[in-house]
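hey so u asked for the seq, here:
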Amino acid sequence: MIHRNFQPHFVVKTGINGLGVFVTHAFKSGDVIFEMTGKLLKSPTRTSVQIGNDVHIEDEIAGFINHNCSPNAKIDKDIHSFVAIRDIAEDEEIVFDYNENEDSLASPFVCGCCNRKITGKKTKVMA
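ran it, structure tokens below
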């Protein structure tokens, strides 16, 4: 069931963890999937993405992109964009590793694929 269309290349629908962002056409490794726009913040929120030291962006699309320990995308902080790190098939969910991008999360959680606590790369969690 489709919940919301943002633009021709994306659709938000049920994903691996609630709602997720799915591509409506394939992307090749290295392709820019989309550039984030929105309000810049000094602190993380539950839906923001870190794009620099103490700089986070609250983007309408990125707020629905889920975490996965085997990501198909990463953040290019220089151009504020999601970039494919492998080929992404049509109708595949875009996912990135929050622990690789975020210094700390506003809302840490236990990962559904590995059962580790996802807190951000600067927060140390005992296993």
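The radius of gyration is 14 Å. Confidence is low (pLDDT under 50) at residues 1-6.
lmk if thats what u needed
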